[in-house]
């Protein structure tokens, strides 16, 4: 598997209490293959020390406009060269006013004025400061100048008040930054994804389900949206929030998921069957709660519809990617499933390595063999899976068929 190219950003930290969130943001960015260089205003160093960011990034933190380690003492020029974006988090009202009006009286504001790359700002301030007409004029100017404004959000503030002005949480900023940096290789494409478990009712309170957090499918939805795709996510019951940038369809049972897929599959370019769909469902669920007794309970079950197989056999249908969660014999079972479903690509993992965890390690099987994605956050694994699928999708000629593979013995 080709290595994912590392991205590079400059993270600017200004003087606000939300600076503590920037430390977590720096950590999350690096976990997602983004190299981070930090520059701070003098006020920013009063909230979080440069030593914290140096420990997190492994790079010296730049605070001095006259830093002699840069060629010709021009830190304000060099810092924006070679990075794909500058992200200011937190961005105070004062700092945004400087940038909006072209003022450059310290290192970070001078870097922003002298930059040759995109600039993103994450506002963080008291609600009255945010609502101040001058701040709103400055924000409007930033947007007119092509600067991305991420947030803010409403909520409790350090001053004890509540309202707009709270900086977005690190995970929210991470997703926005990754989406901004990602090449839009799926622009104009429709992607349909199933995720999570299904719940097959036995009675009004009991049912059959599979262990699945839904995180992998949700991560794929966010990653596909960040690549410019029109994403529809059909999800069974999970505790996760609807992914940013995706059309969200909530279902409960396998039958509901099947119907939702049939309703949305038309015109789809890529289909990812990530959901842990129950293989069986009760023939006749009870419309009341069954009472416990000393007698055995016999349940008659019937197979659920095979959603992936249905999509894979649609004439001229989408490029299909299946998922296999196994407890043993990963290669044999995954390749057998790929052959049975007649799909070009399947992603396989061992359940003991992934269920309920934030990280995953997978093996992709296609006509060319096996390709491993080493253990990493599921958000990063999702981008690796998409990169592989896109290469195969783009290489597929009209009317191409899947090369047969041998069934596992």
TrEMBL record:
UniProt protein name: Coenzyme A biosynthesis bifunctional protein CoaBC
Any matching Pfam family: Flavoprotein
Occurrences of domain Flavoprotein (ranges): 8-179
Region (Phosphopantothenate--cysteine ligase) residue spans: 191-409
InterPro entries: CoaB-like_sf, CoaBC, DNA/pantothenate-metab_flavo_C, Flavin_trans-like, Flavoprotein
Residues forming the catalytic site: 159
GO molecular-function term, one example from the UniProt record: FMN binding
GO biological process: coenzyme A biosynthetic process; pantothenate catabolic process
Entry keyword annotation includes Flavoprotein: yes
Record's signal peptide: none
Binding-site positions, CTP: 279, 289, 323, 337, 341
Needed co-factor(s): Mg(2+); FMN
This protein's pathway: Cofactor biosynthesis; coenzyme A biosynthesis; CoA from (R)-pantothenate: step 2/5; Cofactor biosynthesis; coenzyme A biosynthesis; CoA from (R)-pantothenate: step 3/5
Protein family according to the UniProt entry: In the C-terminal section; belongs to the PPC synthetase family. In the N-terminal section; belongs to the HFCD (homo-oligomeric flavin containing Cys decarboxylase) superfamily.
Gene: coaBC
Renumbered residue ranges of the record's region Phosphopantothenoylcysteine decarboxylase: 1-190
Reactions catalysed: N-[(R)-4-phosphopantothenoyl]-L-cysteine + H(+) = (R)-4'-phosphopantetheine + CO2; (R)-4'-phosphopantothenate + L-cysteine + CTP = N-[(R)-4-phosphopantothenoyl]-L-cysteine + CMP + diphosphate + H(+)
Entry note: cofactor: Binds 1 FMN per subunit.
Keywords: Decarboxylase, Flavoprotein, FMN, Ligase, Lyase, Magnesium, Metal-binding, Multifunctional enzyme
Function text: Catalyzes two steps in the biosynthesis of coenzyme A. In the first step cysteine is conjugated to 4'-phosphopantothenate to form 4-phosphopantothenoylcysteine, in the latter compound is decarboxylated to form 4'-phosphopantotheine.
Domain DNA/pantothenate metabolism flavoprotein C-terminal: 186-389
Enzyme Commission numbers on file: 4.1.1.36, 6.3.2.5
């Amino acid at each position: 598997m080709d290595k994912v190219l590392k991205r590079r950003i400059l993270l600017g930290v200004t003087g606000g209490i939300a600076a503590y969130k920037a430390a977590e943001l720096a950590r999350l960015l690096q976990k997602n293959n983004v190299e981070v260089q930090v520059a701070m205003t003098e006020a920013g160093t009063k909230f979080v020390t440069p030593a914290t960011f140096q420990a997190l990034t492994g790079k010296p933190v730049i605070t001095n406009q006259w830093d002699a380690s840069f060629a010709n003492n021009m830190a304000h020029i060099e810092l924006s060269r070679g990075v794909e974006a500058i992200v200011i988090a937190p961005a105070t009202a004062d700092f945004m006013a400087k940038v909006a009006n072209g003022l450059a009286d310290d290192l970070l504001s001078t870097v922003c004025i002298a930059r040759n790359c995109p600039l993103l700002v994450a506002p963080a301030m008291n609600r009255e400061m945010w609502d101040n007409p001058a701040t709103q004029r400055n924000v409007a100017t930033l947007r007119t100048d092509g600067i991305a404004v991420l947030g803010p959000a409403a909520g409790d503030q350090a001053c004890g008040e509540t309202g707009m002005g709270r900086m977005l949480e690190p995970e929210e900023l991470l997703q926005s930054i990754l989406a901004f940096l990602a090449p839009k290789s799926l622009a104009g494409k429709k992607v349909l994804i199933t995720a999570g478990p299904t719940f097959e009712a036995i009675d009004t309170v009991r049912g059959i389900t599979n262990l699945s957090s839904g995180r992998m499918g949700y991560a794929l939805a966010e990653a596909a949206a960040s690549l410019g795709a029109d994403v529809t996510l059909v999800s069974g019951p999970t505790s996760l929030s609807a992914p940013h940038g995706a059309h969200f369809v909530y279902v409960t049972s396998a039958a509901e998921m099947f119907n939702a897929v049939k309703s949305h599959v038309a015109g789809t370019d890529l289909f990812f069957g990530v959901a842990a769909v129950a293989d069986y469902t009760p023939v006749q669920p009870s419309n009341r709660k069954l009472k416990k007794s000393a007698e055995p309970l016999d349940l008659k079950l019937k197979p659920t519809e095979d959603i992936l197989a249905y999509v894979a056999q649609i004439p001229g249908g989408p490029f299909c990617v299946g998922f296999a969660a196994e407890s043993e014999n990963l290669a044999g079972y995954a390749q057998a499933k790929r052959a049975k479903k007649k799909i070009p690509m399947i992603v396989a993992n061992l359940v003991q390595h992934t269920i309920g965890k934030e990280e995953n390690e997978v093996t992709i099987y296609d006509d060319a063999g096996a390709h491993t994605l080493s253990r990493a956050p599921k958000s990063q694994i999702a981008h690796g899976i998409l990169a592989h699928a896109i290469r195969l999708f783009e290489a597929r000629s009209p009317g191409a068929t899947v090369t047969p593979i041998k069934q596992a013995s």
